[in-house]
Amino acid sequence: MIRSADGVVRVEVHEPKGMLGQVLDAINGIVGTLTGQEPDGLLQQLQNAVGDRATVTRDPRDQP
């Protein structure tokens, strides 16, 4: 879970084993660029970084 100024973005890692480490490495590689992002921009950047190894969603409670 990553909290933005006005919402929460969740990253759900897909199997098989070992994907969690790959996804965390991908997120750590872009974390500096995520600061100050709006939720939709954050969601897009995260999905681009993790590709098909994980699903990135916005918490439905935070959507307009």
Number of helices: 2
For the termini, the CA-CA separation is: 19 Å
Structural class: alpha+beta
**Mean pLDDT level:** 80
| Broad shape | globular
Summarize the helix and strand pattern as letters. EEHHE
Radius of gyration in whole Å, from Cα?
A: 11 Å
| Beta-strand residue fraction | 15-25%
Strand arrangement across the biggest beta sheet? 1-2-3
State the helicity in percent bands: 40-55%
Give a count of the beta strands, DSSP E runs of length 2 or more. 3
Largest sheet: 3 strands, antiparallel
Uncertain segments of ≥5 residues (pLDDT<50)? none
Description:
- It is a single chain.
- By secondary structure, this protein is of the alpha+beta class.
- The mean pLDDT is 80.
- A three-stranded antiparallel beta sheet has the order 1-2-3.
- A hairpin with a 2-residue loop joins strand 1 (2-4) and strand 2.
- The chain contains two helices and three strands, in the order ββααβ.
- Helix content is 44%, strand content 23%.
- Helix 1 packs antiparallel against helix 2.
